[in-house]
Amino acid sequence: MINFNFENYTKLIFGKDKELTVGQEVKKFSNKILMHYGGGSIKNSGLYEKIVASLKEANVEFIELSGVKPNPRLSLVREGIELVRENKIDFILAVGGGSVIDSAKAISLGANYDGDVWDLFEKGKNFEGSCVPLGVVLTIPAAGSETSGGTVITNEDGGYKRSTGHRTMRPQFAIMNPELTYTLPDYQTACGACDMFAHILERYFTNVENVGLTDRLCEGAMKNIIENAKKVLENGNDYAARAEIMLSGTIAHNDSLSMGRIGDWASHDIEHELSGIYDIAHGAGLAIIFPAWMKYVYKHDINRFAQFANRVFDVEIDLKDLEGTALKGIEALKNFFKEIGLPVTLEDANISDDRLEEMAEKRTENGTVGNFVKLNKEDVLNIYKIAIK
């Protein structure tokens, strides 16, 4: 286990009707905010009216910026930055899922940055200031962005999808009512389950030894997602299962499962090219890329892959054939993604193979990706090829 510092100051406000308290939570930080959200879903569900009523009751003035799309766009982030600056806003409220939260985080970062915010994503420039504080009302359990210190944005100019992070980017609070997820379509629910599962996998596959506690925490969280994703897809109004899934998404990405470990993150980077160009849902892209990555790198540490197969999918360990055990675990993961309705190949997602080299080139133009196994352009291209069908 390596040395580490752990800090996560996001306050979780979890349970039924907790969204009604948003005004009093926001009031602790500001009297004038930017309310950021996506399209019509929060209005169709009645959540928008509840948020507005709570803000007005708390005498909080708000300016709205809607229009966030999946794989949130840089152009809207820039629009938000100007709104925050022009109106001297000092708090941002994100109402939505990971895309809305990531867009709000990028606005909070860029509003206090002297240059173009994209430089912090594309060029890796350091930001020495503090982000504009923000809070969250979560409607889609998936990305875990409600308590994380990172954000991912897509630049429409060239289809580049890139990430950045900052110590002050974590939301001040996250309001989480599982009932707000009842109306999610099955496909969106499944994509969310895969997204949080993948966040755990990125941490699980590490070269760091003697991390038994966090191994077990990761394995338990993954088994919990498998069990409850199936329950939710059978009955979308199962509050207990929705609550388990919602909290799993937070735990998967709040860094508690990272303590003492060095994660990989190659699969996320490789998938970003897919969703950046083809605008596929991030969770669906991860369902395609992760099994392909696993097939490409499993020989690097067959013991860890066999452990994964046994502890997460109950595959019996064959001491005479650990490789076979490892491969069964990879196949079990792929079958789980299939079972919940996700594509597991590029062919399943109707994505052609004519831009694989371009994606591999873009992903590795600044060097190798991944920590478990460092991957160059040829490696990334081979993973895309494995993912074809």
From TrEMBL:
<dbReference type="GO" id="GO:0008106">
    <property type="term" value="F:alcohol dehydrogenase (NADP+) activity"/>
</dbReference>
<dbReference type="InterPro" id="IPR056798">
    <property type="entry name" value="ADH_Fe_C"/>
</dbReference>
<keyword id="KW-0560">Oxidoreductase</keyword>
<dbReference type="GO" id="GO:1990362">
    <property type="term" value="F:butanol dehydrogenase (NAD+) activity"/>
</dbReference>
<dbReference type="GO" id="GO:0005829">
    <property type="term" value="C:cytosol"/>
</dbReference>
<dbReference type="Pfam" id="PF00465">
    <property type="entry name" value="Fe-ADH"/>
</dbReference>
<protein>
    <submittedName>
        <fullName>Iron-containing alcohol dehydrogenase</fullName>
    </submittedName>
</protein>
<dbReference type="InterPro" id="IPR001670">
    <property type="entry name" value="ADH_Fe/GldA"/>
</dbReference>
<feature type="domain" description="Fe-containing alcohol dehydrogenase-like C-terminal">
    <location>
        <begin position="189"/>
        <end position="387"/>
    </location>
</feature>
<feature type="domain" description="Alcohol dehydrogenase iron-type/glycerol dehydrogenase GldA">
    <location>
        <begin position="10"/>
        <end position="178"/>
    </location>
</feature>
<dbReference type="Pfam" id="PF25137">
    <property type="entry name" value="ADH_Fe_C"/>
</dbReference>
<dbReference type="GO" id="GO:0046872">
    <property type="term" value="F:metal ion binding"/>
</dbReference>
<dbReference type="GO" id="GO:1990002">
    <property type="term" value="F:methylglyoxal reductase (NADPH) (acetol producing) activity"/>
</dbReference>
<dbReference type="InterPro" id="IPR044731">
    <property type="entry name" value="BDH-like"/>
</dbReference>
<dbReference type="InterPro" id="IPR018211">
    <property type="entry name" value="ADH_Fe_CS"/>
</dbReference>
